[in-house]
Amino acid sequence: MSEPTRDDIDVLVASATPHFAYQLRARLRELVADLPGDHPTRLYAEEQIELLDRLGHASSKAEQGKPEPRTRPGWDEIPSSAPASDPLPAER
Question: Which of 16, 38, 57, 68 shows the smallest number of beta carbons within 10 Å?
């Protein structure tokens, strides 16, 4: 395979959902595994890997629009409604 590009990374990440975030994260790691640690494409991939990790703890990509306030009635009954910008805490 030719050297991966930012476009290759964007194609993988663009349609990411919380359900598939970790599978895509693993594919992204494999895609850039042979690149040096300081390679610009690898550095970009690492940023996107962090995004996918946050997304995996969220229930919506929700990159646009205003987040629902946690004071909204019923919020306690829907704790998985966390967006990628403010995901639920990672389980350890």
Answer: 38
Local confidence band at 61 (pLDDT 50, 70, 90 cut-offs): low
Q: Is 65 exposed, middle or buried (0-12, 13-18, 19+ CB in 10 A)?
A: exposed
The sign one gets for the Cα dihedral 21, 23, 26, 31 is: negative
- Name the one residue in this structure whose structure tokens are 């930012």: 6
pLDDT in tens, 1-36: 689 999 999 999 988 888 899 999 999 999 999 999
pTM: 0.66
Q: Where are the domains of the chain?
A: 6-77
CB 58 within 8 A of CB 18: yes
Q: Tokens 């004071």, residue?
A: 71
